[in-house]
Amino acid sequence: MGTVNSFKEIWHSRKVHSATKAKDSTSQIVYLAIGTTDLTHLEAETYAKTNGPGNDANLLRETIDLDEICPGYFRCTFNFVHPDAPESKDDQQPGDPTEFSFDTSGGQTHITTSLGTTRYGTNPPDCKGAIGVTEPDKVEGVDIIVPQFRFSVKTTVAAAAVTLAFVKTLSERTGTVNDAPFKGWAAGEVLFLGVSGQQRGGGDWDLSFSFAMEKNKTGLQIGDITGIDKKGHQYLWVRFAAQKDAANYALVRRPTAVYVEDVYESTDFGDLGIGT
Known about the structure:
mainly beta
């Protein structure tokens, strides 16, 4: 069986038929696939690897022809038609993103240091931004609302493309972050939350991919600690220790170390089959 080890467009593969009536225009692109003899697996990978038209944005991918050259070598011909052409069965082209939605409702998080502090009272100790420092050694912190951006991409995929191998890939990518730029966001900023799917009878599948975005940050400062870099979905935590505030003759807890932890694996979101 095997996997597709190489998938490249062949030289001089493109054919374009430009008609006076736009709906009669067509085009064709040919690829060479190497490494598998499983037609079902091959079709799934070709749909994923060539997501989107890839040539004229006004044309939709309509059919794929798979021709075996020899064992493990296939000529893959992609045919494109205009959305208004009779050959185009519906407006939702299998494998092409058809709907994008988002939600910016804020989320809640617990913080132990602030962005800035104003002190009042008689000789208040300088806690270096620590919030809720109580005697003898506790930093209580506070719950706040923070920006939270979630989005989903809905697409229609041919039944033959939703194989066990494809579903396994989606499952393995769930709970990982992007290792390269994805949909306009930098590496490390997008967390894949998972995908839900529903089949239309025995035909195409409607898939909905969910993501959460958090921006990467550089040059952060916590207390007297500077130059802190944190990718969007890394986890940052602060260690506090008792220090003497000589100016106010007090012993207070202050940030003494900052740790940035990798808690999500980075993976290639190109394997999701919805483009990058």
